[in-house]
Amino acid sequence: MVDELRFGLEVPMTFASSPPVQTDRLETSLLNRSGRQIRNLRVQFENAGLVLHGQATTYYAKQLAQHAATEITGLLVIANEIEVP
Question: Is the confidence at residue 61, as pLDDT, over 50?
Fold first, then answer.
C-alpha cells in the first residue's frame, strides 16, 4: 500500500490548501508504517513542509511516522508535535 501511495500521491503546490483525500491517504499510510501506535494522527501541509500531530505510545513510533512522512512525500517535517506520554 505504501508504494501505491508514494506513486499515487500528488503533493499539492500550495501546501496550506491540501485536498483532504490526499491528506487522509497520507495519514493512513503513516498509521500503517508506525504499526498503528499513533492515535489522532493529523498531518498539516505548510509552506515549508509538514507538521505532524497526534499521540504515540512510544518515541520510536513518533520517529517512524516522521521518517515515513518524509519518505512518502519528499517534504521535510518542520515540526513533529506527536506527543508521547
Answer: yes
Task: Please name the amino acid found at residue 20.
Answer: P
Tell me the β-bridge partners of 45. 50
- The structural domains of the chain, ordered by start, are 2-83 (3.30.300)
Predicted TM-score (pTM) of the model is: 0.74
Nearest Cα neighbor of 64 from 32, 21, 25 is 32
48/45 Cα distance (integer angstroms): 8
* 62/10 Cα distance (integer angstroms): 24
Cell numbers for 75: 517534504
pLDDT in tens, 8-55: 454 444 444 455 558 888 999 999 988 899 999 999 998 889 999 999
